Amino acid sequence: MKEFSYHFSGKETRYYLDAGFADMPPVINRKGCIVITDTNLYQHYAPLLEGWQTIVIPAGEQYKQQSTIDDIIRRLIEMEADRTSFIIGMGGGVVTDIAGYVAGIYLRGVRFALMPTSILAMVDAAIGGKNGIDIGIYKNLVGLIRQPDFILYDYSLLDTLPAEEWVNGFAEVIKHACIKDATLFELLQSKDIAYFKTNKEALGALIERNIHIKSTVVAGDERESGERRLLNFGHTFGHAIENLYQLPHGHAVSIGMVIAAAISQEMTGFSAVSNESLVQLLQQYQLPVQFSFDKAKAFSILKMDKKREKEAMNFILLQSIGEGIVQSIPLTQMESIVMQRL
Amino acid sequence: MKEFSYHFSGKETRYYLDAGFADMPPVINRKGCIVITDTNLYQHYAPLLEGWQTIVIPAGEQYKQQSTIDDIIRRLIEMEADRTSFIIGMGGGVVTDIAGYVAGIYLRGVRFALMPTSILAMVDAAIGGKNGIDIGIYKNLVGLIRQPDFILYDYSLLDTLPAEEWVNGFAEVIKHACIKDATLFELLQSKDIAYFKTNKEALGALIERNIHIKSTVVAGDERESGERRLLNFGHTFGHAIENLYQLPHGHAVSIGMVIAAAISQEMTGFSAVSNESLVQLLQQYQLPVQFSFDKAKAFSILKMDKKREKEAMNFILLQSIGEGIVQSIPLTQMESIVMQRL
Lengths: 342, 342
Hints:
Chain A is an alpha/beta fold. The first copy, chain A, has 13 helices and 12 strands.
């Protein structure tokens, strides 16, 4: 097991890598703990959860809605959870988002930790304290930024991760490489999913590298007034089409990155060669690079993106591989890009 | 107009006393503002709100529920509210609680201010950043602690406050006197509601004195790990019976204070004379001092109070008039007090 911490606004979050349930820090007493997980994970890991109070929610992005929060709150009341209760979110990004949000609002906030079980949650969703739910088709429209006490990484839980979820997770890994880490980009070019699936040591190193990329960015800008915005690369268009067409998150982000890279070519001098490398890398990791969608509908959803500020949108572009930048683009220009160029 | 500030965990909240809509600080531009108010207030003050984007919610504690939050979020989406939007909660305690909560979760938090319109909201609910909603009969079970940018006091709005709401508000004024301010207790003994209703200057001074009592306590213990607990005097039993019998908040708190004072007599040496003074003062301000309720039901709700920690409850008692203390009472003892003594 490996341990380190990051400091966020007055709060230290501890990371336990290559750990397991048995490595829970002593602060956790099983009696006061409530594990939130989903039906998929419970099916595989019910024996592991024996003796823990558990709330099992239905699996899938379509349940990342208020009705699931209502159900969890009702269960917490039944369990007589109090201010000393400790919530553990064990699952992929939907579970970690929901568990963090419930922990933030129940009794005006109880302590919590996350145990990410997918590549996507391990390198992205569980890190940085953003949580929340979708409102209909609008992604993460309601939520909080609130850091967990710790994040515990048990790589053995990846053994049951479905193939398509490996693909999803690599969309965020490639995103990190694009905005911050050209060396990681090159490493990814020389490998593929099968390699990381079978080479545990390389996988552990990859996850750790991504943890550090995201945690460093967030620690420097927790409330997203500057650099944290870079992490939204591919997510503006991605979020606009994700729930509209019920796409897997990684697929939506992959398509969003291709669009953002194309716009970068026009606006920042991002080279055609780099653009081609990105498209190839996404394909190498089995991610989609094109998708036809209803442009008017997508733009109307995009307008509600949290990154909009009045009549402009903070959009993430690439200057080069490994160097993302934030550019404010007027909504009118955004609309003409969507309607004419795509 | 009078201005001052209190500092809460890294956040300064500005207070504008004896002010009006026209005194809104320049940070507020009408275009980016959304006023949340209720049907009662809108009926009286629609002309004042002309030109402001407004969300009007149904009036009453029974609407302090998730369904109202769902409606407000839907309206905010329709209005295309973004991260630069600024929410103003104009109303009594229900409106200020709801507006603060919505501002805390919409797009993971937008800025907000409060404009309390009842005595209760002016001296209590609008101060200290606690917000939230009830879950069925459980009071404030879900919410946040998050401070507003400013609180604006327009005393002229009290002109339309119904008589029973004046009574409600004085329950919290008397509470402040009991736990912190014996001189205020004596002042209250020498006056009555009719006096404060007709003497604007005395009313302004009374409200200001209560603002300082509450703000000072909260500034010293925002997360309620110590002294802030004192503000819950009368609220443990109060909350247990409030929604169960649909009592006005002030009535429930008044009955709760009488019960807590009786328990104080047994446990802290709070004198019979002081106890009698409190009961008399509550009656002088038209508040109820006894109420027969289903003890078993009340205890089962009381168990879910946010002040419970595992098998004990942090209960607020009086040592003397003007001096509250926190005492941890085991649930079993609490139950026998409820079942045998009351």
